[in-house]
Amino acid sequence: MADALNIREARAHFAELMSKAEAGEVTVITRKGERVGAIVPISVLDAIEDAADELAAREARQHLDDPTVSMAELLADLFADPGEAAGGAA
Q: pTM for this structure?
């Protein structure tokens, strides 16, 4: 389980949290007891970005041969916020 700090504590210990991230540790940041963010090692962020790119590429490959989905629709779906993606429907 990752350490958790509220925003005020995180602000006060920011340099220490950066050192922990460099050492591979994750720190969760909370506001009013709710998890709102995290300070993570850059390798974690890189892995998340790589996975998102791979997921987008897989989705694009699925629609390459589908004449009912235009490139514009595909790109709009790929770059839409997850809650707004309409699967090519308008």
A: 0.62
